[in-house]
Amino acid sequence: MAAAIGSAWSGLVPEARAAPSAAYNWRDVVTGGGGGFIPGIIFNKKQKDLIYARTDIGGAYRWNAATSSWIPLSDTTGWVDWNKNGVDALATDPVEPNRVYMATGTYTNDWDTNGQIMRSTDKGDTWQVTPLPFKVGGNMPGRSMGERLVIDPNKNNILFFGARSGNGLWKSTDYGATWTKVTQFPNPGTYVQDPNNSYGNDIVGLAWITFDPGTGTAGSATQTLYVGVADKENNLCRSTDGGATWEAIPGQPVGFLPHHGELASNGNLYITYSDGVGPYDGTKGDVWRFNTQTGVWTNISPVPSSSTDNYYGYGGLAVDAQHPDTLVVATLNSWWPDANLFRSTNGGATWTAIWDWDGYPSRKLRYTQDISGAPWLSLGIEPIPPTPSPKLGWMIGDLEIDPFNSNRLMYGTGATLYGTNNLTDWDSGGKVNISVMARGIEETAIMELISPPAGAPLLSAMGDISGFRHDDLTAPPAKTMSVPAWSTTYGIDYAELNPGFVVRVGMADYSADANARSVGLSHDGGANWYKASSEPTGTKGGGTVAVSADGNAIVWSTSDVGVYSSKSGGNSWTASSGIPAGAKIAADRVNPNKFYAYSAGRFYLSTNGGATFTQTAAAGLPSSGAASLKAVPGREGDVWFAGGNESPGPYGLWHSIDSGATFTKLANVQEADGVGFGKAAPGQSYMALYVIARIDGVRGFFRSDDGGASWVRVNDAQHQYARVTTITGDPRVYGRVYVGTNGRGIVYGDPVGGTPDPDPDPVKQSTISPTSSSFDKKTGNQADITVTMTLNGNTFGGIKNGTATLVSGTDYTVSGSIVTLSKSYLARQPVGTTSLSFQFSAGTSPVLAITVIDTTSTGSGNIKVQMYNGSTAAAVNGISPRFKLINTGTIAVALSTVKLRYYYTIDGEKAQSFFCDWSHVGGSNVTGTFVKLATPTTGADHYLEIGFTSGAGSLAAGQSIEIQVRFSKADWSNYTQSGDYSFASTGATYADWIKATGYVSGGLQWGLEP
């Protein structure tokens, strides 16, 4: 054995004398579903309901059985020791349940420091720390293997830890306080995920360790241990003398990597194997059973690697402690159409899948799925069989059966933690009820936060799940920002004087959708989004975005092709001159013509809406490091900059009141990485400042009510959240501050004893009624549209159609609170949707959406067709129109005489299939026929004709029915629907649609044929 390393460190370092503290209550901004990868779930085997979950960058959690939620255990992690939030292994003591241990450290690359073993005697409420002489990889390849850290079940002062990077096996005999390397361990691992990538070029190392409790007695060390090693040729080692000597087990499988190993009480060691370590890879794999008494190996794979049906590895593995022949395994990864779980009650001799094919594309499901705890988990994706939405999961690297309750199973995914409480119903032909079990886990990485002066209190730009409009901070959002769709939103901003207008940027997947956009716009405060009509040529998106105070200009600093501006609502973009690529940008919150920019120590100003920038004379700003640039609402030219780094420096907080011509560095702030503004303190005219900073030698979050002259710390040692990424105050609630973290989601603080809700002086919102209407351009059908305004103390300032302002007295008239839109103006609008924005002196600008149609040549019948598309993605493998058929006449119509047509381009002629998902008249009474046009036209070379059998009956006068259908090609190749004649690119509710035609007894009664 090598010399022992490490010594106990309490982690309770006395705080330096610092700025005074203000007492704050800290809470999570709730998503309800976690939002990130759960690589490990660990049940204590002695104490019921003592369960832990570990995350890759967001720390660890403990289950609270009383509330069926999770308690965070890593919020004390500070700025400097941020890597403690990467948890690569966790062990809960089977002898003394109050003891728990973690191996922490986030990366084994050169951008991280060494890891540590953390130990607790109060179930994780407080921790002591032993530094390790090597790095630990909580966010590295293979992080859902495990567990790498284990406690001897007979003599619990003994622990073993399997390291990465070729560092082998380590042992502690003093409850984790000190550690020695097991020098006789023969194989530290050879597998490297990707030797050509700086992230994946490290040795994954040891994967898991398990004891055989029967080879020891209480108080005496267990003698037999098994260690799984990330090595495709020599992956399983055994010691029968407590770890003194080791052997490679004869006959072990080769060619794959052991992801999990579980020893059942009957002596069978079950192992899941994959050709990749996960969490993203795994295209082949097997499940093996090793009889530790006889030495016999048996391949018990539900779908063996030799089968062409095996296109995934196996990851998660759970053995029922009460029934040692019962086990569940998970795929790693079956990306399409979904993950799968397999269950056996006879030691793997036979298996039942949680879903099977039932005549492609149908699937037979042995489960139900409830995402009401986090309804956004559908990710805005419409289910298109065979692919469901939501999915069972992906990256299922760990699943566990409760040792005290055979009915409870939990498993981690790339987005949340799912579970069930009726697992054994699977065995009797019933359905397993799967639901979200992640309440209390908040694991998102936050890119940016905005808190507008009206509308929802908070909007977030997030990694991996795009972001949310948070209407209620205490309740899960209903949906992500998914239209346009991308995984990570990098930047978001709103128009200060028109806060309903919001712009966000991400990186779209152009390989999946050639017409995708990496910029999205909203006119209703982020409730609904649409993609811009264009974007800078050649960009992949990303970067940051800024919106002028009035919303008429957008400046986008892309990740790759430089800085561009748009004054047409994203319809066109022009390269901004005088500004370096990659510059940080911000809009003045008063003057709509002013934008600011920072790059490499230089500051830039635009006075023409971002078209051109000029470098100012400002000096003394840092040339590298963090950079947070924001302008103060209500004060033209008032700009703050937080940033820099320790080397080469400088580092701190700077302020300008002359539009960036000069900056003054605040002497009382030593370091600063983020700045934001909130409602001014009572009696103050200047907004409250919030910073992520080091002041008087202490790192934390600070507030200033006097423009930075003095500061109070608003967090404490219990609420540090590691490396936080962004900060902003609430402009409507004094003292409230929002903090975005890198893996711990969004937290918000309110002063203790304050009155955070409601705002004592809220902005009154003006409203209009209706908010949607229709206009027919047919001469005899044209009519003015009247709108009633509820002013709520504001004044009416006019109407805009995009950037164009309507002319009062010509395009519309006003009488009291009634606005009348002229039919002569409306008749000039194109067929489609015209959105008119009503301007008021304060608050948001409500929008009237007018569906403009032209029935001049649509026939004169007594039916009307409304429609929207279930999926508006440009490229889809199934087109999903949703129809509402309305009888506008005075007598009933026999549905067997009615036909509807949807016109489209087939994009590669193949056989096609029709599906009726649902209809009031029953799906079996709805027919679909594909017809090829003799002469193709713009947007159409085929149409789908929908009809009805006699069993559909008749449609009474004034009544309506819905018909929800899908169609696809036999090979499930994509259609490009964005240019199709009948495609409705926007809208998620029924609206009159003249491009879907309706016929009665063969005569055109609705719509325009192409």
Structural key phrases:
1010 residues, mainly beta, 5-stranded mixed β-sheet, 1 helix, disordered N terminus
Explain what the structure shows.
Strands 28-32-31-30-29 form a 5-stranded mixed sheet, with no helix packed on it. It is globular, with a radius of gyration of 31 Å. With 1010 residues, it is mainly β. It has 1 helix and 81 strands. The longest helix is centred in the last third of the chain and has 4 residues, at 823-826.
Distance from N terminus to C terminus (CA atoms, Å) equals 82 Å
Count of DSSP H/I helices? 1
- Mean pLDDT, to the nearest integer, reads 93
Spans where pLDDT lies below 50 across 5 or more residues: 1-17, 756-761
Share in helix: under 10%
SSE-based structural type: mainly beta
Q: What is the radius of gyration computed over CA atoms, rounded to a whole number of angstroms?
A: 31 Å
Largest sheet: 5 strands, mixed
* Beta-strand percent range: 35-45%
Number of strands: 81
Q: In order across it, which strands form the biggest sheet?
A: 28-32-31-30-29
Label the overall shape: globular
Oligomeric state, counting identical vs distinct chains: single chain
SSE layout and pairing:
Blueprint: E1 24-28, E2 40-43, E3 51-54, E4 60-64, E5 69-72, E6 87-92, E7 100-104, E8 116-120, E9 128-131, E10 149-151, E11 159-162, E12 169-172, E13 180-181, E14 206-211, E15 225-229, E16 236-239, E17 247-248, E18 257-263, E19 268-274, E20 287-291, E21 297-299, E22 313-319, E23 327-332, E24 341-344, E25 352-353, E26 355-357, E27 363-365, E28 367-370, E29 399-401, E30 409-412, E31 417-420, E32 432-436, E33 446-450, E34 458-462, E35 469-470, E36 489-495, E37 498-506, E38 519-522, E39 530-531, E40 544-547, E41 554-557, E42 563-566, E43 574-575, E44 584-587, E45 595-599, E46 602-606, E47 614-615, E48 626-631, E49 639-644, E50 651-656, E51 664-665, E52 671-678, E53 688-695, E54 698-704, E55 712-713, E56 724-729, E57 737-741, E58 746-751, E59 767-769, E60 772-776, E61 785-790, E62 796-801, E63 804-805, E64 812-815, E65 818-821, H1 823-826, E66 832-840, E67 847-853, E68 863-869, E69 875-876, E70 881-887, E71 893-894, E72 898-904, E73 912-919, E74 926-937, E75 940-948, E76 954-955, E77 960-969, E78 975-976, E79 991-992, ...
Parallel strand pairs: 28-32, 60-67
Antiparallel strand pairs: 1-58, 2-3, 3-4, 4-5, 6-7, 7-8, 8-9, 10-11, 11-12, 12-13, 14-15, 15-16, 16-17, 18-19, 19-20, 20-21, 22-23, 23-24, 24-25, 26-27, 29-30, 30-31, 31-32, 33-34, 34-35, 36-37, 37-38, 38-39, 40-41, 41-42, 42-43, 44-45, 45-46, 46-47, 48-49, 49-50, 50-51, 52-53, 53-54, 54-55, ...
